[in-house]
Fold each of these.
Amino acid sequence: MLVNVITFAVIVLIIAAACTKLVIDKKKGRACSGCPHSRHGNKGFNCPGQ
Amino acid sequence: MRIALSGNPNSGKTTLFNAITGKIEHVGNWPGVTVAKKEGDLKKSLNQSGKKIRVVDLPGAYSLTPFTSEESITSDFVKNEKPDVIINIVDTANLSRSLFFTTQLLELGIPVVVALNKSDLLGKKGIAINSIELAEKLGCPVVEIAAISGKGLPELIEKVFAATGKGQLTPFRGIDLRGADRAAVEIDTLERFAFVDKLVRLIEGREFSSHKQTRQDAADRIVANKYLGIPIFAAVIYLVFSISQAYLGPLFADFLVDWIDNFYEYVEGLLGADVSPVLSSLLLDGIIGGVGAVMGFLPLIMVLFFLLALLEDSGYMARVAVVMDRYLKRVGLSGKSIIPMVIGTGCAIPGVMATRTIRDARQRRTTAMLTPFMPCGAKLPVIALFAGVFFSDAAWVGTSMYFMAILIIILGALIVQRITNEGPAKSYFILELPDYRMPSFRRALITMFSRAQAFIVRAATIILLCNAAVHMMQTFTWSFQVVEPGMEHTSILAGISSPFAFLFIPLGFGAWQLAAAAIAGFIAKENVVGTLAVVYGITNFIDTEEFVLVSGAGDVAAVMGLTSVAALAYLMFNLFTPPCFAAIGAMNAEMESKKWLWAGVSFQFGMGYTVAFVAYQVGTLLTTGSFGAGVIPGLIFVSVLAGIIVVLARNSEQRAKTDLKGAA
């Protein structure tokens, strides 16, 4: 039983970490998570986070 | 305090920016790499003030009267945001052209420090510049630097601090161009050039003969030759794919896959036999197995990007743009469209963003629509997987997909040209060819690790989440019961993907597993590999025993139930249908037209389907003597697509004729 709870918690933790990273990148204006050259805002120069 | 870096395209602004901030922004040995402003803090080793100094890298511009959107970024920033100091980067090999822009910056009243970049090459090129006299004539400090090696940077920053808060002399005062008519602008331009020419004659000495052929010229005669250019490019790309996917890449991949396998076994041992099979399978097969299958291709991608970065840095890719201009011009595009396409081989998103350097709206939108056809980093694992499983020679598959993408782009541009009823491109493509140079291993390594980081982050986020979702949907039925062994077709995943699989029968891959992988690929293309690993229960696509790309290739192919021809069709479908959602978002931002966006995405779907259909049916006919399954419905569907294009093209032609009559 305990091993199931731990395994479930590990899976939830992994998924939550992945989701958090995606949300943070989205807030930073990264269109493609992880890609350092894919930040884009408006066509003008006021790109958020750049 | 803010310092703006400004200068002509390809003068080395981003190289200087990286050198003084410690950042690793993408640099390229050709104009137009930077299309948006970038910011960073001055390195502590150069900053003696103790204050926070912000450095802003601006896109290249030839003048403060902008022609393209990225030029207007520079113009707007220096005029409206009033940085404390402007570092004007001047390419010493092109002093006349660079100083034209300098004289405009000096009129703004903001302190300017001129950085004479690439000064280490002056002796080699037989150029001598009297920088002391130049500083006197311009009325601002002038520092000789070499951003690439770091020469002169402390002195440059010292001059920047000294200039802060002071005014700026103006050696040439032009007319106020706001509201000025064309004739006045022309007069101002001529007078400014005359001033710059006089100045350059005074401070620059050159030892050259105009009819003397350099080694650079001799190389260009071969590499950019009308007939030899394309075969040389094909050979170079073949070599790149050979090294990355058949030799060096798998050599490194072996170590990584071995490590992933050990990690899988370690976690399996930790879980033991008491853990729930559903949880165990989700963690081992869904998360570790799915992500591991994608990660196994990381070394192949790293080697590929390392080699592509070397090519770009050497100046070769600028020649490719010149070679391709000849063909693209005929279909309404220009060599300028090649730059986004080359950038798109890393990731389609910055590639699409780079289209903003194209002035003509139709060309820009067409390029944004066609750039995602290039095989980006996310598509490479898919190519490597299918090349390894179904074809013994991995390198030709990658190379042919690369050139297939170029052919589709040319065909696509031709179709758009007909639909929009435009003639051949009227604008000329003028590209200042950068000198060939020994590519920097350091910069190539930075590019490689930057791409690797992106790949790992994607694998650990979007790919992981998708694989977990796919695994869950495969584990449960619609009534949330665990799927019985052998009853996988009752799973949620099979239920969702089966209708799509039906549509793919004419393309040779009517299995729901393959349909599920193709659908997951629209979220991120690496998902095709991850989903196939999850649905077929394969955790290792790369051999750990031998340096063969894919382990048990025959077994994997048998499990998928595909012929080689159907596999090629499946690969083409995944490469040439719309890119991931994020790239579609970038297309939306650059096209600035919902009509163009939807037309573009529909076109990409139609193109991917048609190419896969033709590849499967023609290939099956050639290999077996008869057509494959679903040829009639497929033919009807493809004919309808072709009919729509013909009708749109005719309507456009009719409209043009009516407009012409109306005008007459």
Amino acid sequence: MWMARKTEPSDYEKLLGGLEGDAFQDEVCARLASLIADFQRVPPKPSGDGGLDGLSHGHTVAYCCYGPEQEPFKVNTKGLKDAIVTKFRSDLRKLCELATGPSNRLKRTKSVALPDIVEKGVKIKHVYLISSWFESHKMIGPLATSFATFRARSANQFVAADATVTIWGPKDLASRGAVDEHTMFRIEERALMARVRTAAAAGTLPVSMADFDAKFEDLRKRGPSLAARVDELATYFRKAWATAIALDNELASTSVSLHEALEDARAQSAVTAQLKSATNAEPFALVGEMRGEVAMRLGQAFGQRLGTLTSKVADGEVGRLIGDCHVDWRQHGE
Amino acid sequence: MSEPTDAAFALDALLKEIGASARLSPDRVVRSTLYDMDYHVSLVACAFFINGERRIDGNRVLTTHWLKLLQFIAVRPGLLPNFERWASERRRPDLDTWQKMPRGYLGDRTHDRTIEFLIASGVIYRTPEELLSGERFEVLEVLYQNILERDLLASERSALRTMETIPVNKTMLRGR
């Protein structure tokens, strides 16, 4: 007897649904670019994106993305739905060159960005609103109604008077075209970095921070008037250390070669810093030099893969070296 | 602190202001146990005695790639549920289950080096697809007894015991 298998979200769908902010937008654009020959990503510089994140089909189809932070909405999906509707409403309003005046009245305005983005004389006929969460049909009606209102009030320079709108979630994007190994590799890497950020935000710290705390306490005692700066730096390096630990844990489970590269970068940086320390007469540049060394090694090992995490991880590795007793400034006998 | 890149330099400046001279310990940075050969030898010992097949001639045997996968998951028990799901559903492949196979184990070079060392030491022999006990196999036997007596590597042994129930074949180890 034939039995239906339980339908579960695909891995791609799940990973896409977990991305937030720029990571979500970057993945959506990469996915659409692999599916649509003339997909055009819209960079937000220099004057904003005019509410558009991408265009295709000879600039007649527009795409707006939104990957909201999901943590605050874990138990409040209504809040999440409202946040998405508000964001997309704002994007549609911008496309229609409208702004809200006093008492929320719509007034026409001129977009600075759109004339430089959309081909002259071409009008957008369809808009896809792509969100990392689309589990409520209550988003469809309000957004379609708002879009109709905006079109009616708009001068329709960039959006056709009869333009239509569709909302997509991760499921819709996953089901369009094959999810090949390249796609999975790309999103897993993004998801890895997103998980590192989440784990870092959760503040995973080593079991013992006694040495780390003792070193900063020593600074507080020796420079009581500078206690506020000491606290600020201690807090910063502690958080950065948590990021480095999160990356370490993720790579240890998912990518041995990248984890080994991280270990090598850490060990080699310490050796180089030791050599420099032995010959350098300026002890007050040691931490900065060591941090530079770690950042360079991370760059060699990971290229651009860590993105903005590189500097946080480099600082985190310095935090680790302070906490693991390799860097010390306490006077002997303490 | 607006720019994170400033933090290290800010700490240098603070140390200078306070007159606290930073120095580096000459000790080497301790590497993760994931790259510790003693640890890997211990894992190999556990895998041979928990998951290995004992043949009539007294030899213990393990498929080479199965051992590599066993030890990889044993130190990362978080991967076990995904692997179990992949192993049970791999005959009806789809993208969901395809992703569950922890293919990262193929890049575990520390294990490869450990096996090379054990072969060179005569502790194990290698055939084209299997590893079997060598003339100095008692090294692993004594080590495993020590691990049991001191109740060491409990988490790793537990994961290995769970994987004992998963049927293994060569097609599966090719990721299919």
Amino acid sequence: MNILIPLVVLLPLLGSAVALTQAKHPRVQTLIAVSVLSAVLVVGVALLVAVDASGAIAVELGGWKAPFGIVLVVDRLAALLLVVSAAVLLAVLVFSVGQGLADGDRETPVSIYYPTYLILAAGVFNAFVAGDLFNLYVSFEILLVASYVLITVGGTELRIRAGITYIVVSLVSSVIFLAAIAMIYGATGTVNIAQLSVRLAEVPPDVQLILHVMLLVAFGIKAAVFPLSFWLPDSYPTAPAPITAVFAGLLTKVGVYAIMRTEMIIFPGDQLNTPILIVAALTMIVGILGAVAQSDIKRLLSFTLVSHIGYMLFGIGLGTAAGLAAATYYIVHHITVQTTLFLATGLVERQGGTTGINRLGGMLKASPVIAILFFIPMLSLGGIPPFSGFLGKLALFEAGAQDNSVLAWVLIATGALVALLTLYALARAWSMTFWRDADEVAGYEHPLPVLTTVGVSTEVRPVRSIPRIMVGATMAMVALSIALTVFAAPLYDLSSRAGDNITGPEYYITTVFTGESK
Amino acid sequence: MSVSLTLVAVMAVLYASGIYLLLERSMTRVLLGFLLVGNATNLLILIVSGRAGVAPFYGESGPLADPLPQAFVLTSIVITFGVSAFLLALIYRSWRLAHVDDVSDDTEDVEVGRRRASVAAERDVAGDDTEFGTRAAAAVSTALDLAEQERLEEQESVAEQLQAEREAEREGHT
């Protein structure tokens, strides 16, 4: 089983190299990319089954013993996220194949698109299995550099302007992360996460606090946590629909995952739990207020993305097994649903020529399928029973109620309010886009002014037919999000076991130093 | 652990000037700032790795230099290098986009452009704060000018076409 762990990183990297040599044969590239990601999905499922049955496993790369060499660790949390992210990456890849083929590859220069996409996948998978702080830094860099290329793909003026914001902010967060690693190494003499959790406890509390805050700031920028989230709605909407979808689904979650590891394993204990809970509440509120004011679906979704990061932080900030289990389930739910919404928006943009809700109308008659594909994840994100968003929020609120502190109750109230506001913002977008008649659009005096023209398509392009493959990929994602509801019980049990494993650092430490753990 | 004060001072200066440059509006300065901050961080890694001047990997009885921070620095240098190359390409691309029409041969036009640029610079702070100076601004303003002109011409041609159609219709009636 251990031999499977490096495969999740190796396969996409090798696939990317091979795809790059086939630059003149887009079909071969597509085939390579799809088969590599399918293979990773299979490996991920195998790992998840094995890890869930017999406990976490670790592999020492190059045979170097644990605290000195690089270890890759797969516990239930990592395996679960590997499977979900591989599935999402595959669905989005299929979606972009459909879009690329239909557009005659004008918008996506195929020769670099597929290799870069695979490198992004390698970075994401590597971040999930990294058992070493420096390896985590390297995987962040891998996925960030790939994302720099993808966000500026095509090199139009708008995308470069948006990309520059994104790149500079990401660079700053990387530098902070690297400086934090340097200082942690100076304080403890190791970067192995398992060993750090032992050695950092011996460091004076004030030094611990500085190192802790530095790591959280670095990951907080990547996860788009409130005071550090302003770059996201400016940079995501300009990229092509599938790229925005995969960024929204995965990149911020990698940051959340890193925060989870930091809080539970590197700095176990409740040193910063109260500030994290406060920041979680602010992230939810500020994010959703931004979403309510948007008149462009892509920007609106970017703001809801920021807002829902707050829910995951809520679970992490509680620091209990129940809170972590709920946060894990919520991450899985959010990766799926947010990606589906962005894919559905891609379909809307294709059919209606724009994503500005003031200029869209009558789409329900024109394409009822898209209306349904947008409607289901919308209800799920807004927390309507029986969808996965409701279950995730319910689990979080239960964990908060168990905690029974004033702050936890404040967060539960905030979470309920934000769920309603999410539903309001999305339902308004849906009813304006799909429900109202097309002839109402012309004379409509919109209460929502277009706040900025950056990243907002201003002209309505002619209606194009939608390739079945794009609709099929979106349908598969909707089916996946429904599966999260149907199979909620086993999935939630799995999340609970994952949450139990990472509540304290002991399980992780045993895994790293003995190679496996029951 | 004793550290060299010189290294610490150099690191502080690099961080300070790097952050100052990162806060600038011009992309080229941001790139320079990123390079300085990146190198300051590399120095930080070297500083925390302990005393300089000990044996690299032999002399088992004496103290040994820690090889791990050096590996970190090497990795981060490579990453900084790659990212800077990408940023340079991006800056060049954005410069190309703002510089679509090179009209430097026509001296009169350049002169007009420069005059416009100075007006634009007064209006817009971002306009004058660039490493490319007035040349870029001139190129931008003339490019906009050309776009404007094109649009006007297009409108005229559409109007002409409409008129021609109307005349043809009238002739058809009579």
